[in-house]
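4.2 Preliminary Data

To establish feasibility before requesting continued support, the project team ran the inverse folding procedure on a target of 427 residues. The structure was first converted into the token representation described in Section 3, and no sequence information of any kind was made available to the design step. The complete token record follows.
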């Protein structure tokens, strides 16, 4: 499995205090404390650890990283910087550059394909990922789905599973990113029915925000399970214990967990959960067969599948006996292949979410001095709610992807200041 140095933003930002970063590798749970110390000192010195007060925060942070790139590079903490920077670019719809920056943070190596790789893939049976996972969920009580934090598309699969699994009795939705410290927990999230600034970190990204929104709308109780700030315990154990609390309070519970990378593996949180509870989770990986900025850095089986043009939607491969394949020595129960992204007006094609979202062109507006645009549901707090979509304006025909509804559009200049607002209706 890939050795990914990724940002696990446990109790991220504390939203009121300096950023707490936990870079880790899949093979270990070691924390690069010296690099984190340097990183946090820089973010404090340039104001990137300031209190969050408004949903323009994502834009301000992006600009802070953009304008201070050389400062981070001079301190030789490129891996942390580009991991975080890639996340903020993904939050603002710049998916292509998010992939590029993430590649810089990981120092990826090339992976060539062979005839044997293609032969192996050709001998498997491709199935629809949503249908396959939904069917497998019948025989378990907890489904754990991972994501690469810089890839918003990984939130779409979980969104598509919500209603299907709800019909099978699933009623709890757990998300790693939700702040779970006593003073910072979003206690009103389920009653309010939408996430806002302060709910979590990755929920700042529109597709993640809408995943939370759709979970509540479907009928799930959204539950935080992250380790609280300043806890001295093992993160994986405490996360597992927090999830198990749901089953202790509701013996008939069925739970969906959406988390990052290796947390779903036997030596991390999923394994700790099984040890503590005796309940075996169904684990769904989206990170092994993920696209990279350049296809030559992708997994060789993923390259082979793409070269054969067999991936046209999220897919799972099974063998002739009906068992899921490529489970990496049973690290996962299921590995999902997502298609290579195609771009429409600079935006990923998967933003359409099978018709749930539609392109909304901004050509009717004066975009002369506009650098950023946000779309926020007009019936939500337009200063605090997570935007349904937001972009960096970087081409002559900028577009948003919006579900039907009424919105407030906020237009920002290159300093991150609001210069105008407009009400629109896409119904």
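Position-by-position output of the design step:
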């Amino acid at each position: 499995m890939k050795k990914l140095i990724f940002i696990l933003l446990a109790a991220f930002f504390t939203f009121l205090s300096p950023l707490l970063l936990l870079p880790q590798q899949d093979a270990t749970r070691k924390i690069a404390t010296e690099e984190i110390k340097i990183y946090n000192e820089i973010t404090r010195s340039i104001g990137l650890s300031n209190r969050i007060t408004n949903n323009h925060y994502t834009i301000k942070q992006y600009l802070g990283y953009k304008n201070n790139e050389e400062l981070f590079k001079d301190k030789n903490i490129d891996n942390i910087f580009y991991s975080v920077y890639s996340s903020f670019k993904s939050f603002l719809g710049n998916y292509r550059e998010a992939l590029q920056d993430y590649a810089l943070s990981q120092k990826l190596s090339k992976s060539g394909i062979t005839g044997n790789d293609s032969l192996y893939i050709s001998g498997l049976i491709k199935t629809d990922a949503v249908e396959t996972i939904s069917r497998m969920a019948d025989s378990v009580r907890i489904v754990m789905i991972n994501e690469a934090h810089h890839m918003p598309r990984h939130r779409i699969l979980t969104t598509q599973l919500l209603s299907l699994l709800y019909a099978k009795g699933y009623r709890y939705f757990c998300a790693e990113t939700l702040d779970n410290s006593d003073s910072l927990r979003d206690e009103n999230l389920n009653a309010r029915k939408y996430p806002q600034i302060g709910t979590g970190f990755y929920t700042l990204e529109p597709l993640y925000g809408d995943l939370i929104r759709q979970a509540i709308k479907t009928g799930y109780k959204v539950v935080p399970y992250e380790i609280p700030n300043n806890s001295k315990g093992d993160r994986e154990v405490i996360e597992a214990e927090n999830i198990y609390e749901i089953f202790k309070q509701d013996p008939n519970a069925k739970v969906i967990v959406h988390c990052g990378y290796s947390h779903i593996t036997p030596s991390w949180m999923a394994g700790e959960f099984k040890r503590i509870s005796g309940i075996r989770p169904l684990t769904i990986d989206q990170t092994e067969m993920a696209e990279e900025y350049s296809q030559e850095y992708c997994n060789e089986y993923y390259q082979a599948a793409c070269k054969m043009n067999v991936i046209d939607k999220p897919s799972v491969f099974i063998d002739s006996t009906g068992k899921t394949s490529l489970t990496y020595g049973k690290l996962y129960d299921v590995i999902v292949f997502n298609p290579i992204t195609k771009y429409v007006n600079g935006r990923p094609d998967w933003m359409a979410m099978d018709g749930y979202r539609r392109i909304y062109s901004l050509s009717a507006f004066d975009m002369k001095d506009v650098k950023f645009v946000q779309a926020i549901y007009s019936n939500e707090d337009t200063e605090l709610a997570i935007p349904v979509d937001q972009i960096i304006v970087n081409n002559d025909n900028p577009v948003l992807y919006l579900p039907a509804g009424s919105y407030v559009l906020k237009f920002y200049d290159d300093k991150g200041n609001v210069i105008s607002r407009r009400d629109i209706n896409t119904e």
